[in-house]
Structures are given as structure tokens and as C-alpha cells.
Amino acid sequence: MAAPPEHVPVTTQPAPTPAPAAAQPANNGPVDQADLDDWKNRFNHVLSRSGEVVNSKSPESAQSWAAGFFDCFNPIDTCLITYCLPCVTFGKTHHRVRKNANLDGYEPINTSCLLFCGAGCFGLHWIPMAMQRMNIRDKYNLKGSCLEDILTSCCCHCCSLIQQDKEAEHREQQLLSASVQQQYQPNNEMQYPPKTG
After folding, report:
1. 9 is a domain residue
2. ω into residue 9 within 30 of 0, thus cis?
3. What is the pLDDT tens value at each position of the chain, 197 positions in all?
4. Cβ-based neighbour number of residue 146 at 10 Å
5. Looking at the 3D structure of the chain, how many domains does it have?
6. Where do the record's region annotations for Disordered lie (predicted)?
7. Cα–Cα distance between 132 and 169 in angstroms, integer?
8. Smallest Cα–Cα separation from 165: which of 87, 63, 54, 84?
9. DSSP bridge pairs for 142
10. Whether 81 contacts 161, CB under 8 Å
11. Cα 160 to the chain's mean position, in Å?
């Protein structure tokens, strides 16, 4: 009879841990929860103060729009995109005004774009457009009123969208150049006094 095999203890080594994945922003699709919450809060604000919002006007110190309302054919690419896909221009302007002036992280199909499409299915595209136009007027201190915002959004949404897009781009470039100039101002207090004698 053969002897039973010796029992050799088996040592297990821990499995190597995988290298940590590089931190990448999570891209969970075109719908961003922060954007949804922002739009919901803006709708609630307008609905809770509807009389105040509808009768609102810009202050006397408000500036004129740099982009003309009927200057919608220049640049032609923005004109064509807005005519064929107004939701894309709407979403781009929203991203520039509320998220990043340089359009970092911008995707053509985004929450605001989908909101515009959904509202447009019911003929209500003018509501988010008028809200965005009001937001642009407030942010850049531009002339206008809520009733004008509604009227332009209802009657000529392409012209209104292009004007908003061009105005936001122009104003954000102004803000950027002003901050760069302010950043590089010479400090006169740090200069040596001139030598005499």
C-alpha cells in the first residue's frame, strides 16, 4: 500500500492590485443634472415672481446690444446652424453664458439643447429663449425688457438666437480682455525713485 501524499501547505499571494484608472470626467450622456437643477430653479423663480419678471426693464445705465437683431446672416455658419438646428445654437449660448466663456467642455447636444427641442415640440421654444435672453441682458447690463424678450423669441427666434450668441461671445471676450489688462497693470508703488545728482 502506498503512503498517502504529504500535505504541503499552499501559500497564496495576494493578487496584484490594478493600477488606478486615470481620473477622467464622467461623461454620462448629454443630460447634466446640474443643468437640470439650474433650469428648474430659473423656471421656479420666474413662476413665483411672474408679475415682477414680466414687468421688469433694464436700468437706465444699461448698454445697447453690440450685435444687431437683424445681423443674423453674419457669420453665415452660425446662421445656417441656427436655421437648421436652433437647439444647438441655444445650447452653445447657454454654455458660454452660464458655464464657460471659452466653451471648454461644450458638447453640441446638451441639456439646454434637449430642453429647447422638447419645448419646441409643444410650440413653447420661446419660453427658455426669453429666459436666456433675460439672463444675457442681466449679466451684461443690456437694454431691453421681458416683454421685448418674449416678443423677439416668439416672432423671430432665429434672429434672436443669433443675436444672443454673438452678444455673449462679444461680451465674454470683453470681460476676458479686461481681466487680462487688469492682471498686467504696472504697480507704480513698487518703482524706484529717480536718481538725482
Report:
1. no
2. no
3. 566 656 655 555 555 555 554 444 556 788 999 999 999 999 999 999 999 988 888 999 999 999 999 998 999 999 999 999 999 999 999 999 999 999 999 999 999 999 999 999 999 999 999 999 999 999 999 999 999 999 999 999 999 999 999 999 999 999 988 877 766 556 666 666 667 66
4. 21
5. 1
6. 1-35
7. 14
8. 87
9. 63
10. no
11. 17
Residue 139 belongs to a domain: yes
CA distance 162 to 66: 12
Residue type, 16: P
According to DSSP, residue 77 is labeled H
- State pTM to two decimals: 0.77
Helix residue ranges, H only, the chain: 33-48, 50-54, 76-84, 86-98, 111-121, 126-140, 146-155, 157-183
In a domain, 187, yes or no: no
Q: Is 86 a member of any domain?
A: yes
CA atoms within 13 A on the CB side of 135: 23
Residue 167 domain boundaries: 33-56+70-179
Distance CA 183, CA 185 (A): 6
